[in-house]
Every structure is written in structure tokens, then in C-alpha cells.
Amino acid sequence: MRVVVRVKPGSSKGPLVESDDEGIVVFVREKAIDGAANEGVIKLMADHFDVPKSRVRVVRGHTARIKQVEIDD
């Protein structure tokens, strides 16, 4: 399954996954430096969907705040 997420890196509110009118919003504490925020998104989405981290990957938007994440179930 593919989901579009809006990422809020460096958030003191995170780690948190919320849904709003536009989709899923992911708040991660990691800053967007050297892929740290992407790793935080992968870990958080794996926990949220109760799958191993190896089954979650960012397929689009590696350097953007809006990402397409693929989750293999």
C-alpha cells in the first residue's frame, strides 16, 4: 500500500502520527539532515502500521516534506 504523508521534521510534538483533511501528518523529532528525518518517518510508520521497518520505504519525496511511503503488508 502507498500513502502520502506530510512530514514535520524537528518537531517537539513528535514522534506522532495524525490524520487530517489532507491525509497523514507525521511529526518526527529528527532534523532533516543527512536523511535522519526519513529514517524517523520509516520507524514511526512501521510502528503505526505494526510492520517491521524493513517493509517500509520512502519511494518519492526523499528531500521534500510531502513523501510517498510504501508499506508492504
TrEMBL record:
Coiled coil regions, renumbered to chain: none
Cross-referenced Pfam families: DUF167
InterPro entries found in the cross-reference section: DUF167, YggU-like_sf
GO CC annotation terms, alphabetical: cytoplasm
SMART domains attached to this UniProt entry: DUF167 (SM01152)
Family the entry assigns: Belongs to the UPF0235 family.
Protein name as it appears in the record: Uncharacterized protein
